[in-house]
């Protein structure tokens, strides 16, 4: 089998006391379209371990991360090799549900550390204050003019979902913008 | 830049949106019966008021949903908005 390369494969993870940036490649991502009031939506939530989040800009995390994408649309994110699609299909049965594997659409860059909010704020117009955008929040927006899905995974950690063709550009931009936060104790690893 | 309140995502930059023109332009009930001029009026003629104007927006960089908003074209204040089902 041919070696599988992620789009920003030439991107080198960096970390310092203040900031850690690394790619999280090849996560399993499923786009889910279903009427939130339907029986199928409840069944899928049950199978995934948490009800589908219906508040705009929120995500839940149980067997897989479920990110709100729209009033009837979610992005289900599993670890590499997980099969959330099988779980969803089994729960949905023959109901009117749209399930699409979009794993190749986006790759994920994780931004972590006390200065992660400062770094993202360089190129994102959203209010990223922890009171507004704390753990459990997600948003589709623009980061440095690239379309991204931002998800707050912890108090200081974010996942940036970016389209594969923009990933190299965004990785370059993040590294450039992170310059001032990486001076202290920077470790670069391959 | 305008700060446009998406009914789903909240206030976002204008750059995240696509403009959809005047809202509530009804499709003719019987298009075949229209004269060329009436058809052209339906296709190309839109209001251009100074003041309140109902228009369509799509939040292309966010939830990708269409909604209607009433914008004051003189002050750019957005006074009302509604979800399109």
From TrEMBL, chain A:
Tell me which Gene3D superfamilies the record gives.
Answer: Heterotetrameric sarcosine oxidase, Probable tRNA modification gtpase trme, domain 1
A Pfam family annotated for this chain is SoxG
Source organism superkingdom = Bacteria
Instruction: Name residues in a coiled coil.
Output: none
For this protein, the record's InterPro entries field holds:
SoxG (IPR007375), TrmE/GcvT-like (IPR027266)
Q: What is this protein called?
A: Sarcosine oxidase subunit gamma
Automatic annotation (TrEMBL), chain B:
Instruction: Give TM segment ranges.
Output: none
- Record InterPro entries: SoxD, SoxD_sf
Q: Which processes are annotated in GO (biological process)?
A: tetrahydrofolate metabolic process
Q: Which GO terms describe its molecular function?
A: sarcosine oxidase activity
**Source domain of life:** Bacteria
**Name of the protein described by the UniProt record:** Sarcosine oxidase subunit delta
Q: Which organism is it from?
A: Planotetraspora kaengkrachanensis
Q: What is the lineage of its organism?
A: Bacteria, Bacillati, Actinomycetota, Actinomycetes, Streptosporangiales
């Amino acid at each position: 089998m041919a070696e599988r390369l992620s789009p920003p494969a030439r991107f080198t993870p960096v970390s310092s006391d203040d900031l850690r940036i690394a790619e999280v490649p090849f996560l399993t991502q499923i786009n889910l379209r279903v009427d939130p009031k339907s029986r199928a939506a409840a069944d899928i939530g049950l199978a995934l371990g948490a009800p589908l989040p219906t508040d705009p800009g929120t995500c839940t995390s149980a067997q897989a991360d479920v990110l709100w994408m729209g009033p009837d649309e979610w992005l289900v994110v599993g670890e590499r090799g997980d099969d959330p699609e099988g779980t969803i299909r089994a729960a949905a049965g023959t109901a009117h549900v749209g399930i699409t594997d979009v794993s190749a659409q986006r790759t994920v860059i994780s931004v972590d550390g006390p200065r992660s909010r400062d770094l993202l704020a360089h190129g994102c117009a959203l209010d990223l204050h922890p009171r507004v955008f704390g753990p459990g929040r997600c948003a589709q927006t623009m980061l440095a003019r690239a379309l991204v899905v931002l998800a707050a995974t912890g108090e200081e950690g974010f996942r940036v979902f970016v389209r594969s063709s923009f990933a190299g550009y965004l990785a370059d931009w993040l590294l450039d913008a992170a310059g001032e936060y990486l001076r202290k104790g920077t470790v670069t690893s391959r | 830049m305008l700060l446009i309140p998406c009914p789903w995502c909240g206030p976002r930059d204008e750059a995240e949106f696509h403009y959809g023109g005047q809202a509530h332009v009804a499709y003719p009930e019987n298009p075949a019966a229209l004269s060329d001029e009436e058809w052209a009026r339906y296709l190309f003629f839109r209001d251009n008021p100074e003041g309140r104007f109902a228009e369509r927006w799509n939040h292309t960089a966010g939830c990708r949903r269409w909604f209607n908003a009433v914008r004051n074209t003189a002050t750019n204040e957005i006074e009302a908005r509604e979800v399109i089902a």
